[in-house]
Amino acid sequence: MNTEGTRRDEIINTATKLFKEKGYSAVTMRDLATAMGMKAASLYNHINSKQEILKAIIISLAEAFTQGMETIKNSDETVIRKLNLIVALHVDITTKNPYGMASLNNDWMHLEEQLEYYLQLREGYEQDFVAIIKNGIASNEIVDTNPEVIMFSILSTLRSLYLWIPNKDDLDPKILAQNLSDVLINGINK
Amino acid sequence: MNTEGTRRDEIINTATKLFKEKGYSAVTMRDLATAMGMKAASLYNHINSKQEILKAIIISLAEAFTQGMETIKNSDETVIRKLNLIVALHVDITTKNPYGMASLNNDWMHLEEQLEYYLQLREGYEQDFVAIIKNGIASNEIVDTNPEVIMFSILSTLRSLYLWIPNKDDLDPKILAQNLSDVLINGINK
DNA sequence: ACAACAAACTAACACTTGTTAGTTTGAATA
DNA sequence: TATTCAAACTAACAAGTGTTAGTTTGTTGT
């Protein structure tokens, strides 16, 4: 046996970076091979298809979000605190794999067999999110604006973190999460 | 002479929709031709290259943002009001061409000769934006948090509008802009 | 020394890519 | 009626695509 997948993981990590720069469709197996210092055919000793790489990148991330949301949803916290935890979840996952988040956001439509499953996870996540917001409105914790506008506004920012975090590695994730929570929840008006 | 470019414009509009669904690289000239009800070679009676289509989509949008920002920047308004105007600018442009915004956000890296120019416009836009926020902090109009976090948070939401607006055409742009301004500036805390 | 094996290689495949050249069609203009 | 012209067509190209088959290489444990 092995340390399980070391070489395969290197390929997936390299692909992740290339996908974030040019997008899945624009990256060829020969590009990937060159970046790995080998020939395209050699990649197939470690992976079964280009598709499979995309799946490995996206599905694990999507499941991490679903699992995190499950925990938050079932926790015994105020709505504001749950929103804090959602922000922290996104900052955490994105900090650990910012390049993969690019594929999650931009290349999900090139999943094939796994497309439906991915959309399911995404749909579930958004339903849980909007339910939390509706609870907050009902319990008078948050302002009574269109709940979907609120979710969209917060989620757009969190989904774009991958564009930003790699350029700001001087910023501590804890502090970033705190600042973001502040701005998203309390606004910027003085 | 002509109504100038009618057929060419149809091709660009059709391409815009296809690009938003699959991304620039994944759309072939044969896909585009099929969607237009013609053969790939016939497209070249109206356009010079695939590249040129992308350029036509992206650069005009980027210039619209730059021009809008110029007007706002030079206007004689409070910082909060300027931010309202920026929100309205994004809602306006995105409502008029939501599909094109997908390319602006996701396919800009496939510009070639125009890439540098695009990046220039984008850089300028962000500098103007962050300058407005810094003014607001200095004049005590807005809260003293990291100005880049504030800009990032607002701009991420505005840049994601294209994902959302096409599904919500029951929502009046004026009302949407108002709701968004509220949430982005005043937050959601009660 | 030998067997086993991970990991690279060369060569080739069937197909798809953007694009060009030259031709046909049918309606508007002279 | 003859001419012009936009806009479609067929045919083909050179290069690039993901992937397969079979082979070589070098290390590791027996």
User: Largest interface, and how many residues on either side?
Assistant: A-B, 42 and 42 residues
Structural class of chain A: mainly alpha
What integer is the average pLDDT of chain A?
Answer: 94
What's the gyration radius of chain A in Å? 19 Å
In the predicted model, the low-confidence regions of chain A spanning at least 5 consecutive residues are: none
Instruction: Provide the domain count of chain A.
Output: 1
Q: Look up the CATH topology of chain A.
A: Tetracycline Repressor, domain 2
Largest sheet of chain A: none
End-to-end C-alpha gap of chain A: 61 Å
The residue fraction in helices of chain A comes out at 55-70%
Shape of chain A: elongated
Strand element count of chain A: 0
Question: Class of chain A in CATH?
Answer: Mainly Alpha
**Number of continuous helical runs of chain A:** 9
What is the CATH architecture assignment of chain A? Orthogonal Bundle
CATH H-level homologous superfamily name of chain A:
Tetracycline Repressor, domain 2
Helix-strand topology string of chain A: HHHHHHHHH
| Oligomer classification | homodimer
Could you tell me the strand content of chain A as a percent range?
under 5%
